[in-house]
Amino acid sequence: MVQKYQSPVRVYKYPFELVMAAYEKRFPTCPEIPVFLGSEILHESRSDDGAIHIIERSCKLNVDAPRLLKKIAGVEYVFFIQKNTVNWKERTLRIEAHNETFANRVVVLETCSYSVHPENEEWTCFEQSASLDIKSFFGFESTVEKIAMKQYTSNIKRGKEVIEHYLKELISQGITFIPRWTPPPVCGQKDESLLNCSLLFPPADKLDADYIERYLGQLTPMQESCLIRLRQWLQETHKGKIPKDEHILRFLRARDFNIDKAREMLCQSLSWRKQYQVDYILQSWRPPALLDEYYTGGWHYQDKDGRPLYILRLGQMDTKGLVKALGEESLLRHVLSINEEGQKRCEENTNIFGRPITSWTCLVDLEGLNMRHLWRPGVKALLRIIEVVEDNYPETLGRLLIVRAPRVFPVLWTLVSPFINENTRQKFLIYSGNNYQGPGGLVDYVDKDVIPDFLGGDCMCTVPEGGLVPKSLYQTDDESESSDHIRLWTETIYHSANVLRGAPHEIVVEILEGESVITWDFDILKGDVVFSLFHSKRAPETSHKEATLPSTSAAGDNMQLIDKTWVLGVDYSRMESPLVCREGESIQGSHVTRWPGFYILQWKMHGPPPCAATSLPRVDDVLASLQVSSHKCKLIYYYEVLASKDFSYMQPPSDMQH
């Protein structure tokens, strides 16, 4: 049965042009409508005189349906095609929409129209009609029909509220009148109404001078020309969302207004944003509670230039614990959400202060920074995050203030600085000790009444104080991979492994040159294990082997490489003395290789020492044996091979430490 809907006529007591300006604010995303996740322009055209404007969009919607139904259907979201035809001459907008998802099973048609009120040309009418025809849906036709109608009707009222919301927003910005469409002026004749409208809708081939000064800042004629040409190229060739002028301008500035280099950089970034749905991250990303407690960063008012101010207490952050508890993926997504929020705050401050604010200031406190922060996997994760930010958020950092830099900071700076763009490095100001206090310090860039209390100011700062992340919160690969987040990186730092009696976990590292360094870092999550390092000239054969425990048929992530026929001292040799690692311990170590060949890292279950034949077993030994035999050991580990010359800044070779 076809379900139909016809709305009553709704009246907005505002002119058509102003209502259209409010309506366009719903795109490409609309936080005021949670089910509307975003849109992408598929096609756009205009008539020669500009009176007819047609836009066809693909709209992404989230359906509030039971998880089981979504799983059966095999989709998380549904897509609709929406065609908007606005006639500025007749002052009408016709909206036609149909579903693209499950089009062969479900047919959804919707028609909406905005037009001038027949009795008052300063008012606008709205009408809406829709139909739903469910042909077949895996036997859930009735359920889908109820869900669809319930969600559709609940959003009808919301639609009007959203238009009212954006109308009030326009009025609060001083926009109460938008001139009506008029035919293009005769050559040489000026049309004042079009000039007055340029602040809201700058022409595609030209940027109005007032618009530039108000929203983009001072540009030379050549810089303006580069911006116009790049924007035109995007409009002609790019299928999808066209970036805002200030976003395009950032990429031009990052490439010194070399239009070819800026275009290449921008296109790669747009593809990256589309592939990983970065445009929706502020709506979709909800930081884990652990980040709220242990990630020592947050927004804090603005600096003297009106830039949003972000404070990062890096010295108080347990970077190693955050990587192990959340993984690089969550940390990256959190950093991306911070950058997206920063751009949003820049736009808000542009409206508040009446001048272009296109970047933010970051204040980094290094009090507490030590060698723990130079943990190699953590530094590697930091470098990868810097690389992603540099590639996709150029020229968003206006100034970086680093205070209380300790002696270890030059080591970190040596590792990080090569990955930072030269233009960005020039914005760094570094203060050691208490040099940030007094003239020439923070007060030159941040108003005294917003300097945080922990830096000697009077302003209470809500940025978390951080601390060590409990090891009980550390994740294994299995747990991190079960996350629903879209992966932005295809590789991970840590691997997980299960160790059972009779089934040690082993990994092989092939060394082609004698002078190399194998480094490792692992945490024992459960049970006690013995760690050893062996060398063999023979290549071991990879094989999964079963544990001797019948209660555990699957050893999980467990690999055994040393063949049972191999003889220690003949087929392979021990390179490091066995190290007993207790539950909860974190082990880091390294080994300088002397010969090429195959190095095997082994973790095996640790049991109690054998009792003498004449003595009775001790109670503690019996209890330990029972405990070990009934539980598998679990660990997470990371290893890397370095050239010996690249290892000079780390601990001495053949060193294992807790």
TrEMBL record:
Where is the GOLD domain positioned along the sequence?
A: 490-641
Q: Where is the CRAL-TRIO domain?
A: 287-463
- Superkingdom: Eukaryota
Q: Which CDD domains match?
A: SEC14
Q: What InterPro entries would the database entry show?
A: CRAL-TRIO_dom (IPR001251), CRAL-TRIO_dom_sf (IPR036865), CRAL/TRIO_N_dom (IPR011074), CRAL/TRIO_N_dom_sf (IPR036273), GOLD_dom (IPR009038), GOLD_dom_sf (IPR036598), PRELI/MSF1_dom (IPR006797), SEC14/CRAL-TRIO_domain (IPR051064)
GO cellular component terms, semicolon-separated: cytoplasm
Please list the residue ranges annotated as the PRELI/MSF1 domain: 3-175
Instruction: Give the signal peptide range.
Output: none
Pfam families associated with the record = CRAL_TRIO, CRAL_TRIO_N, PRELI
Q: Which PANTHER family does the record cross-reference, listed alphabetically?
A: SEC14 RELATED PROTEIN, SEC14-LIKE PROTEIN 5
Q: Can you say what this protein is called? A: SEC14 like lipid binding 5
Q: Which organism is it from?
A: Strigops habroptila (Kakapo)
The organism's taxonomy opens as: Eukaryota, Metazoa, Chordata, Craniata, Vertebrata
